Amino acid sequence: MIRFDHVTKKYPGQGRPALDDVGVEILRGEFVFLVGASGSGKSSFLRLILKEARPTSGKIHVLGQDLGTISSRKVPYFRRNLGVVFQDFRLLPNKSVYENVAFTLRVIGKSRGFIHQAVPETLKLVGLEGKEKRMPHELSGGEQQRVAIARAIVNKPQILLADEPTGNLDPVTSAGIMTLLERISASGTTIVMATHEAGIVDQMRRRVIELSAGVIVRDERSAGYDGQTVRDVEYEPVTEGQDADVSADAAGAKPAKRGAAGTAGKAGAAKRAPSTKAAAGDKPAPTAAPASTSKGTAAGAAAAGAAGASARKKVDGTKPDASPEPATTTGAAPITAAAPKVTPEVMRDAAPLYIEPEATDAVTDEAAEITAAATGKIAIDPKALVPEASDADETSAPLTLAERLGLRAPGGPRDDDRDQEVGPTT
Ligand SMILES: Nc1ncnc2c1ncn2[C@@H]1O[C@H](COP(=O)(O)OP(=O)(O)OP(=O)(O)O)[C@@H](O)[C@H]1O
Protein backbone atom coordinates (compact mmCIF):
# COMPACT_ATOMS: atom_id res chain seq x y z
CA MET A 1 0.00 0.00 0.00
CA ILE A 2 2.84 2.40 0.94
CA ARG A 3 6.44 1.45 0.29
CA PHE A 4 9.66 3.43 0.67
CA ASP A 5 12.80 1.99 -0.91
CA HIS A 6 16.10 3.64 -0.01
CA VAL A 7 14.37 7.00 0.23
CA THR A 8 16.50 10.03 1.02
CA LYS A 9 15.08 13.54 1.20
CA LYS A 10 17.39 16.54 1.36
CA TYR A 11 16.04 20.08 1.45
CA PRO A 12 18.05 22.84 -0.18
CA GLY A 13 20.46 24.49 2.22
CA GLN A 14 20.13 21.76 4.86
CA GLY A 15 23.28 19.99 6.04
CA ARG A 16 21.77 16.64 6.82
CA PRO A 17 18.92 14.92 5.03
CA ALA A 18 15.42 15.08 6.54
CA LEU A 19 15.12 11.39 5.65
CA ASP A 20 18.14 9.19 5.14
CA ASP A 21 17.90 5.94 3.17
CA VAL A 22 14.49 5.03 4.58
CA GLY A 23 13.05 1.65 3.69
CA VAL A 24 9.65 0.61 5.00
CA GLU A 25 6.41 -0.99 3.91
CA ILE A 26 2.96 -0.23 5.28
CA LEU A 27 0.23 -2.72 4.44
CA ARG A 28 -3.40 -2.20 3.59
CA GLY A 29 -5.53 -1.53 6.67
CA GLU A 30 -2.64 -0.90 9.06
CA PHE A 31 -2.76 1.83 11.70
CA VAL A 32 0.76 3.17 12.04
CA PHE A 33 2.12 5.74 14.46
CA LEU A 34 5.06 7.77 13.27
CA VAL A 35 6.99 9.01 16.30
CA GLY A 36 10.26 10.81 16.88
CA ALA A 37 11.72 14.03 18.16
CA SER A 38 10.94 17.35 16.54
CA GLY A 39 12.81 17.55 13.24
CA SER A 40 13.24 13.78 12.96
CA GLY A 41 11.46 13.69 9.60
CA LYS A 42 7.85 12.73 10.38
CA SER A 43 6.18 15.48 8.37
CA SER A 44 8.62 14.95 5.52
CA PHE A 45 7.62 11.28 5.47
CA LEU A 46 3.95 12.24 5.16
CA ARG A 47 4.64 14.91 2.54
CA LEU A 48 6.47 12.38 0.40
CA ILE A 49 3.49 10.00 0.55
CA LEU A 50 1.26 12.86 -0.59
CA LYS A 51 3.73 13.72 -3.35
CA GLU A 52 3.96 17.21 -1.90
CA ALA A 53 7.71 16.74 -1.99
CA ARG A 54 9.93 14.58 -4.15
CA PRO A 55 12.59 12.26 -2.76
CA THR A 56 16.16 13.22 -3.53
CA SER A 57 16.81 9.55 -4.19
CA GLY A 58 14.95 6.29 -3.78
CA LYS A 59 11.50 5.13 -4.79
CA ILE A 60 8.08 5.50 -3.21
CA HIS A 61 5.08 3.39 -4.15
CA VAL A 62 1.62 4.34 -2.91
CA LEU A 63 -1.48 2.35 -3.82
CA GLY A 64 0.50 0.39 -6.36
CA GLN A 65 1.82 3.45 -8.16
CA ASP A 66 5.42 4.56 -8.41
CA LEU A 67 5.11 8.20 -7.35
CA GLY A 68 8.07 9.08 -9.54
CA THR A 69 6.03 8.23 -12.62
CA ILE A 70 2.91 10.25 -11.73
CA SER A 71 2.88 13.46 -13.74
CA SER A 72 2.03 16.77 -12.10
CA ARG A 73 -1.18 16.77 -14.09
CA LYS A 74 -2.26 13.52 -12.45
CA VAL A 75 -1.20 14.35 -8.89
CA PRO A 76 -4.59 15.86 -7.94
CA TYR A 77 -6.30 12.67 -9.08
CA PHE A 78 -3.82 10.54 -7.16
CA ARG A 79 -4.45 12.59 -4.01
CA ARG A 80 -8.17 11.86 -4.13
CA ASN A 81 -7.30 8.46 -2.69
CA LEU A 82 -5.68 10.11 0.32
CA GLY A 83 -7.32 12.01 3.16
CA VAL A 84 -5.24 14.41 5.24
CA VAL A 85 -5.77 15.82 8.72
CA PHE A 86 -3.55 18.47 10.28
CA GLN A 87 -2.89 19.67 13.80
CA ASP A 88 -4.43 23.09 13.08
CA PHE A 89 -7.62 21.73 11.45
CA ARG A 90 -7.40 24.14 8.46
CA LEU A 91 -11.13 24.69 8.10
CA LEU A 92 -12.56 27.41 5.91
CA PRO A 93 -13.56 29.98 8.56
CA ASN A 94 -16.31 31.62 6.51
CA LYS A 95 -18.06 28.39 5.60
CA SER A 96 -20.43 26.29 7.71
CA VAL A 97 -19.65 22.80 8.90
CA TYR A 98 -21.74 21.39 6.06
CA GLU A 99 -20.02 23.59 3.47
CA ASN A 100 -16.54 22.74 4.75
CA VAL A 101 -17.20 19.07 4.10
CA ALA A 102 -19.21 19.59 0.92
CA PHE A 103 -16.43 21.81 -0.49
CA THR A 104 -14.23 18.75 -1.01
CA LEU A 105 -16.89 17.05 -3.08
CA ARG A 106 -17.89 20.15 -5.03
CA VAL A 107 -14.32 20.77 -6.16
CA ILE A 108 -13.97 17.27 -7.56
CA GLY A 109 -17.27 17.59 -9.40
CA LYS A 110 -19.66 15.41 -7.40
CA SER A 111 -23.34 15.92 -8.10
CA ARG A 112 -25.58 17.96 -5.82
CA GLY A 113 -27.60 14.84 -5.05
CA PHE A 114 -24.53 12.91 -4.03
CA ILE A 115 -23.30 15.74 -1.84
CA HIS A 116 -26.68 16.03 -0.11
CA GLN A 117 -26.46 12.39 0.82
CA ALA A 118 -22.74 11.98 1.54
CA VAL A 119 -22.15 15.05 3.72
CA PRO A 120 -24.84 14.40 6.36
CA GLU A 121 -23.85 10.75 6.40
CA THR A 122 -20.21 11.61 7.07
CA LEU A 123 -21.06 14.24 9.67
CA LYS A 124 -23.10 11.61 11.44
CA LEU A 125 -20.14 9.23 11.31
CA VAL A 126 -17.95 11.71 13.15
CA GLY A 127 -20.61 12.63 15.69
CA LEU A 128 -21.54 16.06 14.34
CA GLU A 129 -25.14 15.41 13.41
CA GLY A 130 -27.21 18.53 14.05
CA LYS A 131 -24.23 20.91 13.80
CA GLU A 132 -24.26 21.28 10.02
CA LYS A 133 -25.07 25.00 10.11
CA ARG A 134 -22.52 26.01 12.71
CA MET A 135 -19.54 28.09 11.69
CA PRO A 136 -16.06 26.82 12.71
CA HIS A 137 -15.68 29.51 15.40
CA GLU A 138 -18.87 28.19 17.01
CA LEU A 139 -17.28 24.77 17.54
CA SER A 140 -14.89 23.38 20.16
CA GLY A 141 -11.41 22.34 19.07
CA GLY A 142 -12.42 18.69 19.10
CA GLU A 143 -15.48 19.43 17.00
CA GLN A 144 -13.38 21.39 14.54
CA GLN A 145 -11.03 18.45 14.22
CA ARG A 146 -14.04 16.21 13.60
CA VAL A 147 -15.09 18.47 10.74
CA ALA A 148 -11.56 18.20 9.37
CA ILE A 149 -11.72 14.41 9.65
CA ALA A 150 -15.15 14.38 8.00
CA ARG A 151 -13.71 16.44 5.16
CA ALA A 152 -10.78 14.02 4.88
CA ILE A 153 -12.93 10.88 4.73
CA VAL A 154 -16.03 12.08 2.87
CA ASN A 155 -14.56 10.88 -0.42
CA LYS A 156 -13.75 7.50 1.16
CA PRO A 157 -9.96 7.61 0.77
CA GLN A 158 -7.98 4.40 1.07
CA ILE A 159 -5.30 6.12 3.12
CA LEU A 160 -5.69 8.70 5.88
CA LEU A 161 -2.60 10.71 6.81
CA ALA A 162 -2.75 12.58 10.10
CA ASP A 163 -0.03 15.03 11.18
CA GLU A 164 -0.34 15.62 14.93
CA PRO A 165 -4.17 15.56 14.79
CA THR A 166 -4.47 15.81 18.59
CA GLY A 167 -1.68 18.35 19.04
CA ASN A 168 -4.10 21.21 19.83
CA LEU A 169 -6.58 19.22 21.89
CA ASP A 170 -7.01 18.38 25.56
CA PRO A 171 -6.64 14.74 26.70
CA VAL A 172 -10.35 13.91 26.81
CA THR A 173 -10.99 15.42 23.39
CA SER A 174 -7.87 13.71 22.04
CA ALA A 175 -9.16 10.37 23.27
CA GLY A 176 -12.44 10.97 21.44
CA ILE A 177 -10.57 11.77 18.24
CA MET A 178 -8.50 8.61 18.63
CA THR A 179 -11.68 6.58 19.12
CA LEU A 180 -12.93 8.02 15.88
CA LEU A 181 -9.68 7.27 14.02
CA GLU A 182 -9.69 3.76 15.42
CA ARG A 183 -13.17 3.15 14.05
CA ILE A 184 -12.24 4.61 10.68
CA SER A 185 -9.28 2.23 10.69
CA ALA A 186 -11.60 -0.66 11.54
CA SER A 187 -13.51 0.05 8.36
CA GLY A 188 -10.35 -0.78 6.38
CA THR A 189 -8.75 2.63 5.91
CA THR A 190 -4.97 2.64 6.22
CA ILE A 191 -3.93 5.32 8.73
CA VAL A 192 -0.49 6.84 9.21
CA MET A 193 -0.40 9.29 12.12
CA ALA A 194 2.57 11.40 13.18
CA THR A 195 2.40 12.22 16.87
CA HIS A 196 4.31 13.29 19.96
CA GLU A 197 1.59 12.00 22.29
CA ALA A 198 3.16 9.15 24.24
CA GLY A 199 -0.07 8.39 26.08
CA ILE A 200 -2.05 7.84 22.90
CA VAL A 201 0.58 5.57 21.37
CA ASP A 202 0.89 3.60 24.59
CA GLN A 203 -2.85 3.09 24.85
CA MET A 204 -3.54 2.20 21.23
CA ARG A 205 -0.81 -0.45 20.91
CA ARG A 206 -0.45 -0.25 17.15
CA ARG A 207 2.54 -0.42 14.86
CA VAL A 208 5.10 2.23 15.76
CA ILE A 209 7.74 3.54 13.37
CA GLU A 210 10.25 5.75 15.14
CA LEU A 211 12.41 8.21 13.26
CA SER A 212 15.56 9.74 14.63
CA ALA A 213 17.45 12.29 12.53
CA GLY A 214 15.80 10.95 9.39
CA VAL A 215 16.54 7.31 10.08
CA ILE A 216 14.09 4.58 11.12
CA VAL A 217 15.42 3.37 14.44
CA ARG A 218 12.41 1.32 15.46
CA ASP A 219 9.57 -0.42 13.67
CA GLU A 220 7.49 -2.49 16.06
CA ARG A 221 4.08 -4.07 15.99
CA SER A 222 1.59 -3.43 18.79
CA ALA A 223 4.04 -1.13 20.48
CA GLY A 224 4.18 1.85 22.79
CA TYR A 225 5.74 5.29 22.36
CA ASP A 226 8.93 4.13 23.96
CA GLY A 227 10.40 0.81 22.95
CA GLN A 228 13.34 -1.23 21.91
CA THR A 229 15.48 -0.08 19.05
CA VAL A 230 14.49 -2.86 16.72
CA ARG A 231 12.80 -3.54 13.41
CA ASP A 232 10.01 -5.99 14.19
CA VAL A 233 8.14 -5.53 10.94
CA GLU A 234 9.27 -7.23 7.79
CA TYR A 235 10.87 -5.08 5.14
CA GLU A 236 12.84 -6.58 2.32
CA PRO A 237 14.88 -3.95 0.54
CA VAL A 238 14.58 -3.83 -3.21
CA THR A 239 17.97 -4.12 -4.82
CA GLU A 240 19.16 -1.83 -7.59
CA GLY A 241 17.23 -2.37 -10.82
CA GLN A 242 14.54 -4.44 -9.16
CA ASP A 243 11.16 -2.80 -8.76
CA ALA A 244 8.98 -3.09 -5.69
CA ASP A 245 6.39 -5.83 -5.72
CA VAL A 246 3.34 -3.65 -5.96
CA SER A 247 1.32 -5.52 -8.57
CA ALA A 248 -0.72 -7.35 -5.97
CA ASP A 249 -1.38 -4.09 -4.20
CA ALA A 250 -2.53 -2.43 -7.39
CA ALA A 251 -4.88 -5.32 -8.07
CA GLY A 252 -6.44 -4.97 -4.65
CA ALA A 253 -4.87 -8.12 -3.25
CA LYS A 254 -2.76 -8.37 -0.13
CA PRO A 255 0.96 -8.06 -0.79
CA ALA A 256 2.83 -11.31 -1.05
CA LYS A 257 4.32 -12.58 2.14
CA ARG A 258 7.92 -11.74 2.53
CA GLY A 259 10.79 -13.64 4.01
CA ALA A 260 10.64 -14.72 7.62
CA ALA A 261 13.83 -12.98 8.65
CA GLY A 262 13.44 -9.41 9.76
CA THR A 263 15.78 -6.69 8.60
CA ALA A 264 17.59 -4.84 11.32
CA GLY A 265 17.09 -1.11 11.60
CA LYS A 266 19.95 1.07 10.46
CA ALA A 267 20.85 2.11 13.96
CA GLY A 268 21.53 -1.47 14.91
CA ALA A 269 18.88 -3.82 16.21
CA ALA A 270 18.58 -5.75 19.39
CA LYS A 271 17.19 -9.21 18.69
CA ARG A 272 13.72 -9.84 20.03
CA ALA A 273 12.22 -13.03 21.33
CA PRO A 274 10.97 -15.13 18.38
CA SER A 275 7.52 -15.37 19.93
CA THR A 276 7.01 -11.64 19.49
CA LYS A 277 7.62 -11.67 15.76
CA ALA A 278 4.44 -11.74 13.75
CA ALA A 279 4.38 -13.47 10.39
CA ALA A 280 5.20 -11.21 7.49
CA GLY A 281 2.12 -9.74 5.89
CA ASP A 282 -0.02 -10.26 8.96
CA LYS A 283 -1.97 -7.35 10.27
CA PRO A 284 -0.71 -6.14 13.58
CA ALA A 285 -2.86 -7.29 16.46
CA PRO A 286 -4.38 -4.10 17.78
CA THR A 287 -4.51 -5.08 21.41
CA ALA A 288 -1.79 -7.66 22.00
CA ALA A 289 1.28 -6.24 23.62
CA PRO A 290 4.67 -7.61 22.58
CA ALA A 291 5.88 -10.30 24.95
CA SER A 292 8.96 -8.30 25.70
CA THR A 293 7.09 -5.35 27.12
CA SER A 294 4.24 -4.98 29.48
CA LYS A 295 3.02 -1.48 28.92
CA GLY A 296 -0.54 -2.48 28.06
CA THR A 297 -1.65 -1.78 31.61
CA ALA A 298 -2.26 1.39 33.52
CA ALA A 299 0.91 0.74 35.47
CA GLY A 300 2.79 0.13 32.28
CA ALA A 301 1.45 3.32 30.77
CA ALA A 302 2.51 5.24 33.82
CA ALA A 303 5.95 3.70 33.62
CA ALA A 304 6.08 4.59 29.96
CA GLY A 305 5.16 8.11 30.86
CA ALA A 306 7.88 8.32 33.45
CA ALA A 307 10.33 7.11 30.84
CA GLY A 308 8.88 9.34 28.19
CA ALA A 309 10.98 12.43 28.74
CA SER A 310 14.28 10.68 28.29
CA ALA A 311 12.93 8.70 25.35
CA ARG A 312 11.78 11.83 23.59
CA LYS A 313 15.09 13.53 24.16
CA LYS A 314 17.11 10.84 22.46
CA VAL A 315 18.23 11.75 19.00
CA ASP A 316 20.86 9.17 18.19
CA GLY A 317 18.52 6.21 17.85
CA THR A 318 19.88 4.33 20.83
CA LYS A 319 17.61 3.74 23.72
CA PRO A 320 19.08 4.47 27.14
CA ASP A 321 17.77 1.18 28.47
CA ALA A 322 17.31 -1.24 25.62
CA SER A 323 17.03 -4.26 27.86
CA PRO A 324 14.68 -6.88 26.43
CA GLU A 325 13.64 -7.81 29.96
CA PRO A 326 9.93 -7.24 30.55
CA ALA A 327 9.12 -4.21 32.65
CA THR A 328 7.38 -4.98 35.87
CA THR A 329 3.64 -4.53 35.96
CA THR A 330 3.32 -4.54 39.71
CA GLY A 331 3.47 -1.32 41.66
CA ALA A 332 2.47 1.66 39.58
CA ALA A 333 5.29 4.07 38.90
CA PRO A 334 4.54 7.62 39.94
CA ILE A 335 3.22 9.73 37.13
CA THR A 336 5.65 12.55 36.58
CA ALA A 337 5.31 15.74 34.61
CA ALA A 338 6.39 13.75 31.57
CA ALA A 339 3.51 11.28 31.97
CA PRO A 340 1.28 10.76 28.96
CA LYS A 341 -1.54 13.24 28.56
CA VAL A 342 -4.04 10.55 27.69
CA THR A 343 -4.50 8.07 30.51
CA PRO A 344 -6.17 4.65 30.31
CA GLU A 345 -9.10 6.11 32.23
CA VAL A 346 -9.51 8.90 29.71
CA MET A 347 -9.40 6.43 26.83
CA ARG A 348 -11.90 4.14 28.54
CA ASP A 349 -14.32 6.95 29.33
CA ALA A 350 -14.08 8.58 25.91
CA ALA A 351 -17.57 8.65 24.48
CA PRO A 352 -17.71 6.56 21.32
CA LEU A 353 -18.79 9.39 19.12
CA TYR A 354 -18.44 7.39 15.95
CA ILE A 355 -21.71 5.98 14.68
CA GLU A 356 -21.76 2.92 12.48
CA PRO A 357 -22.22 3.79 8.81
CA GLU A 358 -25.34 2.78 7.02
CA ALA A 359 -25.11 0.82 3.80
CA THR A 360 -23.59 3.15 1.25
CA ASP A 361 -22.85 0.93 -1.71
CA ALA A 362 -25.59 2.46 -3.83
CA VAL A 363 -24.31 5.94 -3.06
CA THR A 364 -20.75 4.94 -3.82
CA ASP A 365 -21.70 3.34 -7.13
CA GLU A 366 -23.78 6.32 -8.10
CA ALA A 367 -20.91 8.65 -7.20
CA ALA A 368 -18.49 6.65 -9.31
CA GLU A 369 -20.81 6.91 -12.30
CA ILE A 370 -21.39 10.61 -11.80
CA THR A 371 -17.68 11.30 -11.42
CA ALA A 372 -16.82 9.24 -14.47
CA ALA A 373 -19.46 11.02 -16.52
CA ALA A 374 -18.46 14.44 -15.22
CA THR A 375 -14.73 14.08 -15.62
CA GLY A 376 -15.10 12.44 -19.03
CA LYS A 377 -16.67 15.53 -20.51
CA ILE A 378 -14.30 18.12 -19.10
CA ALA A 379 -11.64 19.33 -21.51
CA ILE A 380 -8.40 19.78 -19.61
CA ASP A 381 -6.22 22.74 -20.50
CA PRO A 382 -2.66 21.61 -19.70
CA LYS A 383 -1.47 25.21 -19.41
CA ALA A 384 -3.86 25.85 -16.55
CA LEU A 385 -2.65 22.89 -14.55
CA VAL A 386 -0.13 23.00 -11.75
CA PRO A 387 3.49 23.23 -12.87
CA GLU A 388 5.93 20.48 -11.89
CA ALA A 389 6.73 20.87 -8.20
CA SER A 390 10.31 21.72 -7.35
CA ASP A 391 12.29 21.84 -4.17
CA ALA A 392 12.36 25.60 -4.51
CA ASP A 393 8.55 25.61 -4.48
CA GLU A 394 8.53 23.64 -1.25
CA THR A 395 10.22 26.42 0.64
CA SER A 396 8.82 29.45 -1.11
CA ALA A 397 5.29 28.68 -2.31
CA PRO A 398 3.07 26.75 0.10
CA LEU A 399 0.42 24.63 -1.54
CA THR A 400 -3.19 25.73 -1.35
CA LEU A 401 -5.54 23.65 0.72
CA ALA A 402 -7.14 22.30 -2.44
CA GLU A 403 -3.75 21.20 -3.74
CA ARG A 404 -2.82 19.56 -0.45
CA LEU A 405 -6.09 17.65 -0.45
CA GLY A 406 -5.85 16.78 -4.12
CA LEU A 407 -8.87 18.83 -4.96
CA ARG A 408 -7.75 21.15 -7.72
CA ALA A 409 -10.53 21.14 -10.28
CA PRO A 410 -9.79 19.97 -13.77
CA GLY A 411 -9.13 22.99 -15.93
CA GLY A 412 -7.41 25.05 -13.28
CA PRO A 413 -8.30 27.21 -10.27
CA ARG A 414 -11.78 28.54 -9.72
CA ASP A 415 -12.87 32.02 -8.73
CA ASP A 416 -13.27 31.24 -5.04
CA ASP A 417 -10.04 29.27 -4.69
CA ARG A 418 -8.59 32.15 -2.68
CA ASP A 419 -10.91 31.10 0.14
CA GLN A 420 -8.66 28.14 0.64
CA GLU A 421 -5.73 30.14 1.97
CA VAL A 422 -6.73 29.85 5.58
CA GLY A 423 -4.95 29.20 8.80
CA PRO A 424 -6.03 27.79 12.12
CA THR A 425 -9.48 28.78 13.23
CA THR A 426 -8.82 28.64 16.94
N1 LIG B 1 10.61 22.96 3.48
C1 LIG B 1 11.74 22.73 4.13
N2 LIG B 1 12.88 23.37 3.77
C2 LIG B 1 14.05 23.14 4.40
N3 LIG B 1 14.17 22.26 5.43
C3 LIG B 1 13.08 21.60 5.85
C4 LIG B 1 11.81 21.81 5.22
N4 LIG B 1 10.91 21.01 5.83
C5 LIG B 1 11.57 20.35 6.79
N5 LIG B 1 12.88 20.69 6.81
C6 LIG B 1 13.91 20.17 7.70
O1 LIG B 1 13.88 18.76 7.62
C7 LIG B 1 14.05 18.17 8.89
C8 LIG B 1 12.85 17.29 9.19
O2 LIG B 1 11.70 18.11 9.34
P1 LIG B 1 10.23 17.51 9.52
O3 LIG B 1 9.28 18.65 9.51
O4 LIG B 1 10.02 16.43 8.57
O5 LIG B 1 10.35 16.89 11.00
P2 LIG B 1 9.21 16.48 12.03
O6 LIG B 1 9.67 15.21 12.67
O7 LIG B 1 7.90 16.46 11.35
O8 LIG B 1 9.26 17.66 13.08
P3 LIG B 1 8.09 18.24 14.02
O9 LIG B 1 7.73 17.13 14.96
O10 LIG B 1 8.73 19.39 14.70
O11 LIG B 1 6.95 18.63 13.12
C9 LIG B 1 14.22 19.31 9.86
O12 LIG B 1 15.61 19.49 10.06
C10 LIG B 1 13.63 20.49 9.16
O13 LIG B 1 14.25 21.69 9.54
Automatic annotation (TrEMBL):
Q: Which Pfam families match?
A: ABC_tran
Which superkingdom is the protein from? Bacteria
InterPro entries per the UniProt record, alphabetical: AAA+_ATPase (IPR003593), ABC_transporter-like_ATP-bd (IPR003439), ABC_transporter-like_CS (IPR017871), ABC_transpr_LolD-like (IPR015854), Cell_div_FtsE (IPR005286), P-loop_NTPase (IPR027417)
Main subcellular location of this protein, as a coarse class: membrane
Q: Which SUPFAM superfamilies match?
A: P-loop containing nucleoside triphosphate hydrolases
What compartments host this protein?
A: Cell membrane
Q: How does the UniProt record describe the way this protein sits in the membrane? A: Peripheral membrane protein
One Gene Ontology BP term is:
cell division
Region annotated Disordered sits at 236-296, 308-343, 388-426
Alphabetical GO CC annotations of the entry are: plasma membrane
Ranges for domain ABC transporter come to: 2-238
UniProt biased composition (Basic and acidic residues): 413-426
Its family? Belongs to the ABC transporter superfamily.
User: What is said about its interaction partners and assembly?
Assistant: Homodimer. Forms a membrane-associated complex with FtsX.
Q: What is this protein called?
A: Cell division ATP-binding protein FtsE
The lineage is: Bacteria, Bacillati, Actinomycetota, Actinomycetes, Micrococcales
